[in-house]
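ugh ok fine here u go
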Amino acid sequence: MRRISLRSVCAIAGLALVTALTSGCLGQSRDADPSKNKGVKEFSLTIATNAIKGGKNSEGATWIEDWVIPEFVKAQKKKGVTAKVKFQPSGVDDEDYKSKISLDMQSGKGADVVDLDGIWIGEFAESGYIKPLDDVVGGGKIKAWDGWGQIPESVQLNGAYEDKRYGVPAGTDGRVIFFNKSLFAKAGLPADWQPTTWDEILKASRTLKSKLPKVTPIQLNAGTAMGEATTMQGFLPLLAGVGGEVNVDGKWLGDGQQIRDVLDFYHTVYAEELGDPVLQKEAKGRDKSFQQFADGEIAILLEGDYFWRDVIDPADGIAPMKDRDTAVGYAMIPAMSPGAGIRGQDFVSMSGGSARVLNPNSDYPQQAWELLQFMNSAEAIKAELGEGARITARQDVNAEVLSNDPMLTFASEQVLPLTAFRPGLAEYPEVSLALQEATLAVVGGKSAKAAAADYQAKLEKITGGADEITSG
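structure:
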């Protein structure tokens, strides 16, 4: 599990944005008491998530109100226990939701079960607003949950901090390489293409450029207009491919060989016009890249499984491809060379997602843990999916609901076990922006070495000095 630290920064901008949640800044929640109200025959719990019927994440809100709560109450009644569960909906900007949850917890209040973005876990843990599940419930009960055996250790990281579980991952995704098999065939490339090195990606892109001059060989998200998609779909998977993490043992990764290797790959792609530099600077460049791929104008694209299930879905996609299932191939993202990836891997990926945590202020910690287990059971997750199909945190559910979708099965079975996550630190958004700016500089013609040096200077301002930075 990842080990990351958070330097002490205290600031709340207005009522909407918590820019840092650090120990002592806003106060502390009281100590958790696992035995509190243990064995009572009547209790009340509240669930909070950023979802609301008819609005943001409406399907999730409907699942909680119409399935989770009544089914959990029913299950408790069978045990002779009266449970009252309320849903605390929100339908606001993520930072507004984050601010509200943090202020509730620091004041000793808040819902019992709370949904948090995985990249917030470290911040909330550093603040003391959330505590390890072992502390809230008791270690024996946490370890005994059979659900852990269905969640890959790599995915469990999304609810972990400093080798401790703080929550249960609520869902995840994975980044892969998509490619147009029809264009590959025209260029004499194999339909079962699986590059094993970065050089093989470049070789295929050069072949496409030579054989199909009107086609953009590869879309590698770059620049600030693409936002976090640049970092998550491009920079971080490549960084994992040279064995790097953006935060290493509590220090941010600065200028060094790993950062330069990634930027040099960007430089090659755009200096050789294997990618479209103009697209990276346009406000809707990512959406355009989706449509261009669907129209057969881009051959290779690095994206998450969201691209497959929501963007180019033949029926309901925002850029539907009627022949998606036969025309689109997918491959794992290779390390720079075999074994050079993070944890010595040959292939790498990045994932996102949320985690459900327990509020240490809960008056009913044991009952809250029962609810959390119930919400993350195979039965509950299948009820949440309904007729839909997406990757969940549980491999048993994935094996069942993804059986008719080979791409999502591929991502679940082959990608998730080797994935990585962003660090849950307050500085991350600024660091991510600095990485985006570095790729933009390279797209504009700056050398990898110069762009890495500029990134280092920005990183020192963000973190407070070179002592917070490592070269890898």
